[in-house]
Amino acid sequence: MARLADYFVLVAFGPHPRGSGEGQGQILQRFPEKDWEDNPFPQGIELFCQPSGWQLCPERNPPTFFVAVLTDINSERHYCACLTFWEPVEPTQEGLCTEDTAEREEEAGEGGPVGLSPTAPGSPSQLFAPKTLVLVSRLDHVEVFRNSLGLIYTIHVEGLNVGLENVVGNLLTCIIPLAGGSQRTISLGAGDRQVIQTPLTDSLPISRCSVALLFRQLGITNVLSLFCAALTEHKVLFLSRSYQRLSDACRGLLALLFPLRYSFTYVPILPAQLLEVLSTPTPFIIGVNAAFQAEAQELLDVIVADLDGGTVTVPECVHIPPLPEPLQSQTHSILSMVLDPELELADLAFPPPTTSTSSLKMQDKELRAVFLRLFAQLLQGYRWCLHMVRIHPEPVIRFHKAAFLGQRGLVEDDFLMKVLEGMAFAGFVSERGVPYRPTDLFDELVAHEVARMRADDSHPQRVLRHVKELAEQLYKNENPYPAVAMHKVQRPGEASHLRRAPRPFPRLDEGMVQWIVDQATAKMQGAPPAVKAEKRTTVPSGPPMTAILERSSGLHGNSARRLEVVRNCISYVFEGKMLEAKKLLPAVLRALKGRAARRCLAQELHLHVQQNRAVLDHQQFDFVVRMMNCCLQDCTSLDEHGIAAALLPLVTAFCRKLSPGVTQFAYSCVQEHVVWSTPQFWEAMFYGDVQTHIRALYLEPAEDRDPSQVRGDPLGPWDGAGLALAHTRPLWQAGEAPTQEDERSALDVASEQRRLWPTLSREKQQELVQKEESTVFSQAIHYANRMSYLLLPLDSSKSRLLRERAGLGDLESASNSLVTNSMAGSVAESYDTESGFEDAETCDVPGAVVRFINRFVDKVCTESGVTSDHLKGLHVMVPDIVQMHIETLEAVQRESKRLPPIQKPKLLRPRLLPGEECVLDGLRVYLLPDGREEGAGGSRGGPALLPAEGAVFLTTYRVIFTGMPTDPLVGEQVVVRSFPVAALTKEERINIQTPSDQYLPDGLQLRSCTFQLLKMVFDEEVGSDSAELFRKQLHKLRYPPDIRGTFALTLGSAHTPGRPPRATKDKGPSFRTLSRNLMKNAKRTIGRQYVTRKKYNPPSWEHRGRPTPEDQEDEISVSEELEPSTLTPSLALKPSDRMTMSSLVERACCRDYQRLGLGTLSSSLSRAKSEPFRISPVNRMYAICRSYPGLLIVPQSVQDNALQRVSRCYRQNRFPVVCWRSGRSKAVLLRSGGLHGKGVVGLFKAQNAPSPGQSQADSSSLEQEKYLQAVVSSMPRYADASGRNTLSGFSSAHMGSHVPSPRARVTTLSNPMAALASRRTAPRGKWGSVRAGGRSGGLSTDVGTRLAGMGPPQANGAPPDPGFLRPQRAALYIIGDKAQLKGVRPDPLQQWELVPIEVFETRQVKGSFKKLLKACVPGYPATEPGSASFLCSLEDSEWLIQIHKLLQVSVLVVELLDSGSSVLVSLEDGWDITTQVVSLVQLLSDPFYRTLEGFRLLVEKEWLSFGHRFSHRGAHTLAGQSSGFTPVFLQFLDCVHQVHLQFPMEFEFSPFYLKFLGYHHASHRFRTFLLDSDYERIELGLLYEEKGERRGQPACRSVWEYVERLSKRTPVFYNYLYAPEDAEVLRPYSNVSNLKVWDFYTEETLAEGPPYDWELAQGPPEPPEEERPEGGAPQSRRRVVWPCYDSCPRAQPDAISQLLEELQRLETELGRPPERWKDAWDRVKAAQRLEGRQDERGTPSSLLVSSVPHHRRSLGVYLQEGPVGSTLSLSLDSDQSSGSTASGSRQAARRSTSTLYSQFQTAESENRSYEGTLYKKGAFMKPWKARWFVLDKTKHQLRYYDHRVDTECKGFIDLAEVEAVAPGTPTLGAPKTVDEKAFFDVKTTRRVYNFCAQDVPSAQQWVDQIQSCLSDA
Fold first, then answer.
1. What Å distances lie between residue 640 and 588, 841, 1612, 1793, CA to CA?
2. In the chain, what is the greatest distance between 2 CA atoms, to the nearest angstrom?
């Protein structure tokens, strides 16, 4: 029973003490005047009566009523019901307000009313003051308060004849029951009657209509946000103009939070004077008048709900976590069904008659029911996670948060995590966790309705029905007797407040009221206390918890097969079947990512523990530890799935004997996991174990199945992850209900004990308390031991573990975010929070562990009620425990070091090249996957070759990894990945976890420009010193200080130190002398002119020692034909200069110039003046331009001395020189560096302002203009002396050339007509696109319009149309950088024209290449599957865009040259993009460069001789390290590859040839691509020594020599589709969509490494079939070819290579010397040519010809050579060919086999006078051999071949040198069976040849034939 009202107070307006305009509240009277003992009078009531402040008002307002809530220091709530009315104030009094404050205070203090003289109500000066009646109560009966105060006000206003003192006295003495559903009728003695009903259950909140109103005001989403905000402890502020609404809203929000109680600041109505409370740091729910909205907006972290406006404002810095799905969406939809039932029917065609909506009160309960269901779903099974730590004297209960989250599958959920950590939930556990107490609706719901709620989830109507049932119960709880509730209370009349009040509210008689109160109190003391006994029961636990949403665990689903694998593996381990276990281990480690498999592992391992101990052998121990580590590495610090908890007893059970008396336990190998350093984990474990033992205390011995379990280490340390069941239920049974009747949970036991507690005697009670306390104490000791096991590292001197772990010092903060990157992370830098941090060296490991354990012990023992004496004893024991354990560990560590190391795979040694030496022997590493998923068994399937375990080797040439996959299922495959050291572009350190679940910090990632990546971590056995040494050596080899340190240059000299150099002959100066003289002259000449201008200077070699040459015996014979006067006009050449000349003449440039007919170096007579160009030796000493070759092509009319001046106008002195001439149009291609400021640009400027140095500038510009004029004049079309722009020479060149083929010349991939159409518009389009975006003023349009008139030549190659011969076309186009040619005006004579284009710089190439590398070899697994991420990265790199630009510009130049205009390419310094463009133009225009020999010549001429800076761009030395790798040459090769793809039949070389050059231009295996120019190569002595040393050196120095050698052995560089069209000019498509990514960038062969070192790529030969062991099963010839492992071209060679190999094999079997592949191939092609000719006679040639171009590009199978029509159709008949063509080709195919060998006799019959087999004696000490001899009378020679069908002549005897033919005698080794007379000798001027015929007649015949030849001569 309780008082209805504690206090009645009358508060009136009083003036403010400081005289301000506002007043203040003054308490006039309060009853009773003395405080109640159990409930003191609340302070500050006057503030809450008028929350907006006490103010006078000009008019009389109606009375108001609201209830404010005050909370006292004990968290008790006091309800203050306030009824306010207004009384008039005297104007005089109002005027005195500021004057006589003290007097009025005194008067008010005495209690006398302030004098209010009556005045007219309507007068303007009349003011009204508020007065408030307040009722203070601890009960929440708002309506009763409203009625009671209303009654008092009515008596006063209406003047009823009732004493106010009686009414107030009765009100204060009214006693009502608290709860239990009783009802009481009360009367205050004024003829009134009120019925008070108490709720059935006190714990359920009373909400009336407040929840429904809250939803009406704010809506569903907003209320849900506020609900989540209040639960997750955010600040919530309500705003409204109505105080009653504020109260209701706060009440409603609190009602929604049930069963949790809000425990923070709760002020539904906050007075204005206390607004600063809003800036408190703690959470709150507060209501404030909307007038103070502005103040609320300044608060940064407060959620503001505006009830009047219906909005909720959440600040940006506040994140409200939503409910976990699917609860959020389900709750939302149920709420909308409750609030808006019409919504479901809104779309129906025939809606039912409107259903009656629930009343507001009922709707309120339905809404609350929805939230009650929500909490039941959220907290379902919470009782299974309660730990009963103590039962007596008071229950101590802890909640196992981690297990709850883990079981519900909500570990990641922010909302639930915050709720469980909040104070409201802590209160919930302490209040509702008690096992024996009264229960309410929530307990029933969470225990019994869970299954129903899960089943209803998918049926909205069933959910609604359940909600309505719950709502009924809630309604009944609030209104147990709905029908009886009848009130009878008088109310004031309408507008009574406007009537003139008879008098102010009277002062009540305190004495009388006090007497009534005293009377009632005396009566109460006599009566017995009417307390309703609470019905207490055992709280039901309900079903075990389930996941809130069944999430499939994806890849590692809980499949029975996986668990079977785990069980099998463990049984194999314990049965000692280690091989079987090893096979299964990878699968087990993968399976252990899944929770079920981890539980299964713990379960299986438990079965193998007897008597808390299991001794294993070393291999078993390793397996078990590895599996445990794998389980633990995915455990979070919370261990929400209880895996660490299940393994904790096991790590102290499994052990191995190291030596007698020394045992190593598993815990010493599983310490490096974050979970062991998490205080929360240890607390949960401790409480779980304590609960197990406490439960065992109270169970009857009969029930206790196995008492030994209790004394020892319990099997399931957590009772199934905190499922409070019997101690025999380990973790993996979590979620299974107890099966036996007697298996009562700890909560059941506790409930029973709490029920019996009052009945026990005091002694028994004391005994039980003592037993429980001892149990907790013994567990604390046990845990101190356990923690020391897992926290002390094996080597306690090493503090690495402790420094890396995060959190041993964090116990107080109990932070849960202890997750580190490594699987090992645990204990913090310092365990001592006071010290802040400790130095790494002085880190005191034992001390840190002692402190950690002490903190743990303090916390758990204090919470569990351990006595202070016991606690002190524990603190003394902990250091001893730790010290003892350290001593044990020292012995274990000492013995463990003596263990033999685990058998690791044997290191596989790589195969090395001749001359390649190992610098660092194999360091054991793991090679990791790098994002190229094929190697790791990605989406394409295939084996997981990576990660692989092996070793990395560093040689003088390469970095090589060899090893085997770590996955044993892949098999014994050898994995090789290597790249040349010189190709290394980036080296960075990485930290990665290795496949064997160890954390190895030393990792390296090496990236190379040959598109290889070695991502590796060093094994633990490799010390950090070795790893560092590897890095340093690698760096040293990659960047030698001097170019001489590169592999190509050290290869020759370093490996034959013992050979003395041979004596040189004195015929002429050696190469060294030549180099030396040349250098002297060059330096003398260069010294004079290089002073003024800064330029690139190649490094000088003067101060470095010269390597001694090995072979200098071959001398150069200098041709004496050269007349000195022809070469230099001024002075004759010295002998050394002559040698230079002869050497230069042999260079590629000179050979090519002579082929192109660009001039000769013979005497002046032979140099006809008609030749437009000449070869000038002006640069033979590299005096004019160091980066140019020694011989240059210049116009005939320009003298050498003028060239020096011209060169100054160009960057790097690279003046324009001719590099190619078109054989058809006679147009020439020139190249140069970009222009300097003064030069052509100066020439063409509109007006040149005069300047002091004008004369010099003018002279050089003039020279330049003359030079360009000379170039223009040298062209045939401008050679006319009168200077008219006639094209006679040009057209005659057209007509004089051979008759062109009638085939279409358009060489594109589409059909000829479409291509022709596109060609007509091509030039305009190309110009438009090459000029970047048309930004270049009038010049562009001018060139464009002129070029638009320049149509293409006719398709059939006839002379062009008349428009083509227009005279205004420029003779020379200068292609230059756009930036360089700004402000240039056209040449007035229109002889040359500038074409500005935008090109990319080399730094852009470098940047683009880096991105391309990352796209092709990412280095990390792709984020998105498939090729999408690759294509995005490829696009970002812009590599293909650069290729597109290069091809575009090149095709443009080809068009111009083909149309007769010459082109000068003058870009950048003339050695990067210029070289790319010029080389591509020549390749596209001249079929010669598309042969193997021609391409070599092109590269030697344009790239090597014209000074592309290979060393600088490839960063070959230490000096170039900072500049990085810029793949200019590689980009050129990529362009060639793109053209090759589009025109596969035009190239003699294969795509492999391009890859080979791409690899070796960066590999430094050959000397070809070293240094930056010929000048530097001569200076180092590289250029001319090759020929001299070739004889003695087996290793190839030059890449060309190597290609030549290899081509003789294998057709790998040859393109079988090669069938060139005559004089074919290629015009490839250059759009990005037409370009393909070069497979050089993406392919790799892990079986043998890169295939470009041919000696290494040819693996060991396959064993022949005969070697199969007898009786063995016939092995299949099939083999699996894996992408990225096998070399597909070798595994599946193309048909032609296969046939050629077969041919060689058959010949070897027949005992004949095998024929070279090229000979066989040439023979086949010759045979097909012959058939083609024979076919032509029977086939209309027009038909045959018409079919060719149509198919040529699309099918790519026409092999053709020679004149038109010699076509071989490989049975791919054209659609257009007639039947006769098809049949003809079939007959040809039949004929070809019979004529294949016979036709060669006829082919050269006219040259074969006599032939046959003769034995010939070889040179000195050589044997006799049978050869096929041919006597050729025409050529007058005796030739010999290896065999009859051999086409290549092996040697010949010139009959002009024969002196005599005589009979011979047999010598040593001659054929035995032959008659002596069959021998004869042929004596020549050089030597005597010994021959032997098969018999005497044939010998005689040979002698006669030779004699007749001689006589004919």
1. 22, 35, 62, 80
2. 174
pLDDT at residue 583, as a whole number: 83
Ramachandran class of 1049: left when φ > 0, alpha when ψ lies in -120 to 50, beta otherwise: alpha
Lowest mean pLDDT among 313-322, 546-555, 752-761, 1335-1344: 1335-1344
Of the CA atoms within 13 Å of residue 997, those in its CB half-sphere come to: 22
How do residues 1182-1215 score in pLDDT, each as one tens digit?
989 999 998 899 998 888 888 888 888 888 899 9
Tokens of 1062: 């041979």
Kind and range of the H or E run holding 220: helix 220-231
Residue 901 CB-density burial (10 A; 0-12 exposed, 13-18 middle, 19+ buried):
exposed
**Is residue 728 scored above 60 in pLDDT?**
no
Which tokens belong to 333?
A: 């939809």
Amino acid making up residue 1401: E
Beta strands in 1436-1492 (DSSP E): 1462-1466
**pLDDT for position 1319:** 38
Is residue 1307 within 8 A of residue 1455, CB to CB? The reply is no
C-alpha atoms less than 13 angstroms from C-alpha of 586 in its C-beta half-sphere: 10
Q: Which residue's entry shows tokens 């402040």?
A: 53
Mind listing the pLDDT tens digit for each residue in 1462-1519? 999 999 888 899 999 999 999 999 999 999 999 999 999 999 999 999 999 998 888 8
State the CB neighbour count (10 A cutoff) for residue 246.
26
Backbone angles phi, psi at 987, to 5 degrees: -135, 125
Please give the backbone phi and psi of residue 1338, each rounded to the nearest 5 degrees, phi first: -70, -30
Going by C-alpha positions, the residue among 1314, 1316, 1295, 1294 that lies closest to residue 1305 is: 1316
What backbone torsions phi and psi does residue 1789 show, to the nearest 5 degrees?
-65, -40
Which residue blocks in 9-100 are alpha helix, DSSP H?
45-49, 91-95
Query: Strand 1462-1466 and strand 1372-1377: pairing?
Result: parallel
Tokens for 1291? 């057209």
Beta bridge partners of 88: 128
Residue 1397 has pLDDT above 50, yes or no: yes
CB 1852 within 8 A of CB 1869: no
- Beta bridge partner(s), residue 1056: none
DSSP assignment of 1237-1304 equals SSSHHHHHSS-----TTHHHHHHHHHHHHHHHHHHHHTSGGG--TT-----HHHHHHHHHSPPPPSS-
SS3 letters across 619-647: HHHHHHHHHHHHHHHCCCCCCCCCHHHHH
State the Cα–Cα distance between residues 1127 and 1145, nearest whole angstrom: 13
- Rounded CA separation 906/910 (Å): 13
Phi-psi region of 761 (alpha: psi -120 to 50; beta: other; left: phi over 0): beta
Q: Which two tokens stand for residue 309?
A: 């406006």
Task: Report how far residue 1200's alpha carbon sits from residue 824's, in angstroms, rounded to the nearest whole number.
Answer: 76
**Backbone CA torsion sign across 401, 402, 404, 409:** positive
Burial class (CB in 10 A: 0-12, 13-18, 19+), 1781: buried
Selection from 485-499, 544-558, 567-581 with the highest mean pLDDT: 567-581
Over the stretch 1789-1817, which tens digit does the pLDDT of each residue have? 344 333 333 333 433 444 778 889 898 88
1727 vs 740, higher pLDDT: 1727
pLDDT attached to residue 211: 95
Query: Is the per-residue pLDDT at 533 higher than 90?
Result: no
Q: Are 1393 and 1372 in contact (CB under 8 A)?
A: yes
Residue 442 has pLDDT above 80, yes or no: yes
**What is the mean pLDDT of the segment spanning 244-264?**
94
Lowest mean pLDDT of 27-41, 69-83, 716-730, name the range: 716-730
